[in-house]
Amino acid sequence: MWRLLLLTIIATASAQIPSLGWCPDFQAMANFNMNRFLGTWYEAERYFTVTELGTRCVTTHYTATPEGRILVTNEITNSLTGFKRIMEGHLQKVGREGEGRVMVKYSSVPLPYDFEYSILDTDYDSYAVMWSCSGIGPVHTQNTWLLTRDRLPSLAVMQNAYAVLDRFKISRTFFLKTNQADCTILPEPAAVSELKNADVPVVAEEVEKEKEKAVEQPVEKRVDPEVKAVEPEERSAVPAEIAAEEPNKPMQVPELIMSESEKKEEKIEKIEEPAMMAETKENKEAPAQ
């Protein structure tokens, strides 16, 4: 009895769901294609685990090397401090050929360990259901993860993943949603980035101004209500005195506008006309001989 209780406590401390009995005989996915499974997966839901208590933005990257190895990188962010913890390891295929059973050997943690799990089903493009179970005697522990390609998956994608759980009769009682909100960091404005890359000291105020410019929206020009617009004054070609005396009289406009040469000829005629009149007068007054 005490031994069973001790095993139960150990199973709980290992951050999985403890149960009595032997591990269920769940068959991993057949004809599993590892190349299509590579890439980035986001943790959408999982069983309660102590190791992931108070975490968010859990992400796993599967990358193939030219040598044929498959590297695994887990990124886990602390919800309180915001610090990111990275666990690195490599993946190996186990079980029968083409079966979705894999083992991950982590080497970047204080104590390296191996972790084996089965991929029950995936469509490679939107969701994947991973499951693990380990037992000691009549006590076993299970863990299940729902992974998605999108950080915030749609309801239709989650419904497909839930259908896999129902097919294997896996209870969703202990499932918890992983917080995947506010995981991305917006890039800095281009001007600030260029200054930093050029090793130019940037004052904090200038950085804030650049950020404000990056998000500034066009603002309509404001008009001060106290300042009245000055309308342009209309001026008339008619003198004000004449317009006041005869407001209804139409203004006489010369029919023709004389050119400069015509104006000169008119002046000459005006000068010559008095002289001719004087000469004619003298001729009249002179006595006849």
TrEMBL record:
Keywords: Disulfide bond, Signal. Residues 215-289 are annotated as: Disordered. One of its GO terms (biological process) is lipid metabolic process. Pfam families: Lipocalin_2. One of its GO terms (molecular function) is pigment binding. InterPro entries: Calycin, Invtbrt_color, Lipocalin_CS, Lipocln_cytosolic_FA-bd_dom. Residues 33-150 form the Lipocalin/cytosolic fatty-acid binding domain. Residues 215-236, 260-289 have a biased composition (Basic and acidic residues). One of its GO terms (cellular component) is cytoplasm. Residues 1-15 form the signal peptide. It comes from the Eukaryota. PANTHER family: APOLIPOPROTEIN D. This is Lipocalin/cytosolic fatty-acid binding domain-containing protein. It comes from Spodoptera littoralis. The lineage of its organism: Eukaryota, Metazoa, Ecdysozoa, Arthropoda, Hexapoda.
